[in-house]
């Protein structure tokens, strides 16, 4: 089965909010002020029936550890206060903490300044509704319309300009929130774990949580300098974690990304467990406990066919969505599912959270292992993965991804591969929603078939760029 995934027709928002080069065309101070003003006005209109804090709408703002976060935070603060918002500043905190605090503090809007797994020179903005759900659909269209028409943005009177306040107990609130997701009195006193925080938003909070729960914690990726976020560390580069786990004789390793909404794990042998395997393991466990809702799990088009067959062999459904954890969350919410996520490590436990949460997911996995017994490496025996590989092809400036993807040559190479593999393989070609890339993924029962078709399609895309 093959598929070509296209992006929604948006100008500034991608798969996961707004993202680009810091101080570039979009993420420069003047544009950031306009983005904040537009978002604030649209959200105020849509939330007009909600009671405001002291008569003013409120936005919660968190960030990761990128140097550009200071500039972006200041610019957004100026934009929001200019349209009458009170800004509650959280400082460096994981993205899921911002989503949780948006709900907990009854804010009108939540904002996380991050480019997630991207390198330091990029940054971005993720936005959340009062329910802690990522902004999309009608919100995005109206915000973009106002960004491009700043003359329609009214200025408030001097008496109605907003102000900014620091939330001093934000860290403690989130720590207690994730702890309460565990069974009562559960501790991890017998565990030695290595945590890689990707020099990102969770560099202080994640080691503290696991230490408070009794684990012996070895830290890596916890010395951010504004430039080293995700640099050869974290969920997108688990090799350093794997080496550290083996070196220290740890029971397992936990890798987060720059904003800590992803989880990748490493077993005691140094082997990596991706999001698919974590979802499959938790599905089996929750089903055995009678706690899995909806009769299945939600994943994306990237999920391995081996995982799908394992889930279906348990008598469960696997619902696939486009790439992006907000698509996963929407399908979970609408279908009544409480477990879902992405192969990349965005994992949503909807009994507790409304977005991917790497720390919470890691706690759920540790609780599962404590109940189950055995080693993390035992989970690798659950199913046989199909050979799967992805090529990332960078788009030159000015290239039109849609034209490349829809060209006769690219379409022909995709159809040829699909015809040759039949039900024994699948193809996914899509534009990245977070970087200027076209991603080509091929999966097949035969590794030689997978590599052959991946090479042919990727070469065709490169020639068409």
From TrEMBL:
Please give one Gene Ontology molecular function term for this protein. Answer: phosphomannomutase activity
Cofactor(s) named in the record: Mg(2+)
> How does it get modified after it is made?
Activated by phosphorylation.
Q: Where does Mg(2+) bind?
A: 116, 257, 259, 261
Query: Alpha-D-phosphohexomutase alpha/beta/alpha domain: which residues?
Result: 11-150, 173-270, 274-384
Q: Which domain of life is it from?
A: Bacteria
Q: How is the cofactor bound?
A: Binds 1 Mg(2+) ion per subunit.
Q: Which UniProt keywords apply?
A: Isomerase, Magnesium, Metal-binding, Phosphoprotein
Q: Which residues carry this modification: Phosphoserine?
A: 116
Q: Which residues form a coiled coil?
A: none
Name the Enzyme Commission number(s) assigned to this protein: 5.4.2.10
Q: Which SUPFAM superfamilies match?
A: Phosphoglucomutase, C-terminal domain, Phosphoglucomutase, first 3 domains
One Gene Ontology cellular component: cytosol
What is the catalytic activity of this protein? alpha-D-glucosamine 1-phosphate = D-glucosamine 6-phosphate
Domain (Alpha-D-phosphohexomutase C-terminal) spans 392-449
Q: Where is the active site?
A: 116
Q: Which GO terms describe its biological process?
A: carbohydrate metabolic process; peptidoglycan biosynthetic process; UDP-N-acetylglucosamine biosynthetic process
Q: Which family does it belong to?
A: Belongs to the phosphohexose mutase family.
In terms of NCBIfam families, this protein maps to: glmM, PRK10887.1
**Function, in words:** Catalyzes the conversion of glucosamine-6-phosphate to glucosamine-1-phosphate.
Name of the protein in question: Phosphoglucosamine mutase
Organism name: Blastochloris viridis (Rhodopseudomonas viridis)
């Amino acid at each position: 089965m093959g598929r070509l995934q296209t992006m929604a027709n948006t100008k500034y928002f991608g798969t996961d909010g707004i993202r680009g080069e810091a101080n570039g065309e979009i993420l420069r101070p003047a544009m950031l002020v306009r983005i904040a003003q537009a978002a604030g006005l649209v959200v105020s209109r849509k939330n007009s029936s909600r009671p405001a804090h002291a008569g003013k709408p409120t936005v919660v703002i968190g960030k990761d550890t990128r140097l550009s976060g200071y500039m972006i935070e200041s610019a957004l603060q100026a934009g929001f206060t200019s349209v009458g918002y009170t800004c509650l500043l959280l400082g460096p905190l994981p993205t899921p903490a911002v989503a949780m605090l948006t709900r907990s503090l009854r804010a009108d809007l939540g904002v996380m300044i991050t480019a997630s797994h991207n390198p330091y020179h990029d940054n971005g903005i993720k936005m959340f509704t009062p329910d802690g759900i990522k902004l999309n659909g009608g919100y995005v269209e109206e915000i973009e319309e106002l960004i491009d028409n700043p003359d329609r943005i009214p200025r408030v009177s001097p008496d109605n300009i907003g102000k900014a306040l620091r939330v001093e107990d934000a860290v403690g609130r989130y720590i207690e929130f994730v702890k309460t997701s565990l069974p009562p009195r559960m501790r991890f006193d017998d565990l030695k774990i290595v945590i890689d925080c990707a020099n990102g938003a969770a560099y202080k909070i994640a080691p503290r949580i696991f230490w408070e729960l009794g684990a012996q914690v070895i830290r890596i990726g916890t010395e951010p300098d504004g430039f080293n976020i995700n640099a050869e560390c974290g969920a997108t580069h688990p090799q350093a974690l794997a080496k550290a786990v083996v070196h220290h004789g740890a029971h397992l390793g936990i890798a987060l990304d720059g904003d800590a909404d992803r989880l990748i794990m490493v077993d005691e042998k140094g082997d990596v467990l991706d999001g698919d395997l974590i979802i499959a393991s938790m599905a089996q466990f929750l089903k055995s406990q009678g706690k899995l809702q909806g009769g299945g799990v939600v994943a994306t088009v990237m999920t391995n066919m081996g995982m799908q067959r394992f889930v279906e062999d348990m008598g469960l459904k696997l619902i696939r969505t486009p790439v992006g954890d907000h698509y996963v969350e929407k399908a979970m919410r609408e279908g009544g599912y409480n477990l879902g996520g992405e192969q990349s490590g965005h994992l949503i436990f909807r009994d507790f959270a409304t977005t991917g949460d790497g720390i919470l997911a890691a706690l759920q996995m540790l609780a599962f292992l404590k109940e189950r017994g055995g080693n993390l490496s035992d989970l690798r025996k659950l199913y046989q993965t199909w050979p799967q590989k992805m090529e990332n092809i960078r788009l030159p400036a000015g290239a039109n991804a849609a034209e490349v993807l829809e060209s006769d040559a690219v379409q022909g190479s995709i159809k040829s591969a699909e015809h040759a593999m039949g039900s024994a393989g699948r193809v996914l070609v899509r534009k990245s929603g977070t970087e200027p890339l076209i991603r080509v993924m091929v999966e097949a029962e035969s590794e030689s078939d997978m590599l052959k078709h991946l090479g042919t399609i990727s070469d065709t895309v490169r020639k068409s760029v």
